[in-house]
From TrEMBL:
This is Transcription initiation factor IIB. Residues 125-206, 219-300 form the Cyclin-like domain. It holds the Pfam family TFIIB. SMART domains: CYCLIN. Keywords: Repeat, Transcription, Transcription regulation. It comes from Candidatus Nitrosopumilus sediminis. The keyword Transcription regulation applies. Belongs to the TFIIB family.
């Protein structure tokens, strides 16, 4: 049965009779002139609120969220509401509440059909946990979810932990979208060893054919400098040092965090700012020996350090 609703006077006018009163067919979406029957518009979108409220909120919109790779079913499933109330807001009885509790449990279990979907769901939960801790955007997490789905299709999860593959996918996503996060930072949040992530990342790189850019150590300067409270003068000098190192082609193959830490320490020495190697090494999650080795390389290959003590 077609539902007709009368629309009161609006700013629209009929092209034939110039009337300003219309009716709309809520099923077909047609807007019709009430005087001559001329169809003003077809497939008009109803932006009003849902008349039959079936969720916990009183202002349910007609449209839901878009598709997202952050959910194992891409957001297409339906769930039983968490509030134990009926359609008019009246609390459910104890027996009915217990029944819906069991239904929610089985509804949650039924969303995964096999072990692959269970692994995917677990990985997406891990992504959601570390997203805010690492300050990552939804785009990074969705790209990591896409990589994980590809890993499942290639059967790369078998024989490996879900966390290691998930962490490797997240690291690959950060590299791909140029969100600088180190393996150590990701390993801390996933509570696994850095070597496990590195091993899983190499497998993904080989099997999925990633094309990621080389990490620019200059992007690590601000992060390390903010942790130790260095001045803007030190940051500029460290940037100059790394730029000169890139021109001298001594950056490739080196850990970007260590290169940035060494440049910051060298900049502190040149500018006279008192910062210890231990303090900088802790901020960069590295060792003082690694920093000294890079500084020695700077001294021998860069003219910039000819006056450095």
């Amino acid at each position: 049965m077609t539902t007709i609703q009368i629309i009161k006077k609006t700013k629209l006018f009929c092209d034939y009779c110039h009337a300003s009163k219309f009716v709309t067919d809520q099923i077909t979406g047609e807007i019709i002139c009430s005087s001559c029957g001329f169809v003003i518009s077809e497939n008009a979108e109803d932006r009003g609120l849902e008349r039959r409220l079936i969720s916990n909120t009183s202002d349910t919109a007609r449209t839901g969220p878009g598709l997202t790779l952050k959910m194992h079913d891409k957001g297409l499933n339906t769930r039983i509401g968490v509030q134990n109330k009926d359609s008019v807001g009246k609390p459910l009885s104890a027996k009915t509440t217990q029944m819906f509790g069991r239904l929610r449990k089985w509804d949650s279990r039924s969303q995964t059909k096999n072990s692959a979907e269970k692994n995917l769901r677990f990985a997406l939960i891990e992504f959601d946990k570390v997203q805010s801790k690492l300050g990552l955007s939804d785009t990074v997490v969705e790209r990591a979810s896409l990589f994980y789905r590809k890993a499942i299709e290639r059967n790369l999860i078998r024989g490996r932990t879900v966390k290691s593959i998930a962490a490797a996918c997240l690291y690959a996503s950060c590299r791909d979208l140029e969100h600088h996060r180190t393996l150590t930072e990701i390993a801390i949040q996933f509570v696994i060893k850095r070597k496990e992530i590195a091993r899983a990342y190499r497998i993904l790189f080989r099997e999925l054919g990633f094309t990621v850019s080389v990490v620019d150590p200059i992007k690590s300067i601000n992060k390390i400098a903010s942790k130790i409270g260095s001045s803007e003068k030190v940051i500029r000098k460290a940037t100059q040092i790394l730029t000169a190192a890139q021109d001298a082609e001594i950056i490739a193959g080196k850990n970007p965090e260590i290169m940035a830490a060494a440049a910051i320490y060298a900049a502190c020495v040149i500018t006279g700012e008192l910062k210890s190697q231990i303090e900088i090494a802790e901020a960069a999650n590295t060792s003082t020996v690694s920093i000294r080795n890079r500084i020695q390389e700077f001294k021998t290959k860069l003219d910039l350090f000819s006056t450095m003590i």
